[in-house]
Amino acid sequence: MIDITLVSGRRPDLLEQTLVSFNDKVFANFEIGHVFANIDPFCGTVADGDRCEEILRAKFERIEISRPETASFGNAVKRLWQRPKSENFLHMEDDWQVLHPILPTDVLPRLNEEVVQVQLSALEKHYLPHTYSYRVSWRNTFGLKLFKKTHLDRPLFSTSPSFFNASFARRCAEMMDPNKDPEKQLYEDGTNLGEFTKAYRNWPLNGPKKSAIVFDLGRPWLAEKGMRKKIIDGVSIWEKT
Question: Counting beta carbons within 10 angstroms of the beta carbon of residue 39, is it exposed (0 to 12), middle (13 to 18) or buried (19 or more)?
């Protein structure tokens, strides 16, 4: 049995599309325990937030929903990652599409004392010569961005859809600054959290022939709305382009 954490904005159209995708290719293959969701007042209206809550309560029987007055991605992740009771859990966001079925045998055997995250990869991995996710360097050749070097001293972790070891995520949440971008904190050198995560590994899970297994619906949605995400002094900011 696995619990689920879900970060959502007030975007019922994206949330519904995401849940349909995960239901068909993920939820149907796992025994789902409790669901912990956070609906931030990001985009949309109060009515859109209400609609998101309706969608979630109709989908999951055992669900707890937080609706803070102020939007904070960092605070949402910090709050949610302290909630799961299952040994491992699925962390989700409201704007992803699953491209291929995911089975427990694809994920759970890979999680252990060292591998604490199995990330659903949105990138093809043909060019990466290693199993785990590390910081990499790139070079520009004739206008093409090409892989150059892997930095094995800096494993990377992500808040995109992934399966996590719950003990690891809880420890990260305890050290996480709710006012800053949570993903950057997970691999920031020189901080307590960044140094803590160095001892662990993130295994990107790919689709057939190392293809992407999920697609980011949020990027084209933001582009359509004329918005983009920036990180200033460690804080996530969405601005009009």
Answer: buried
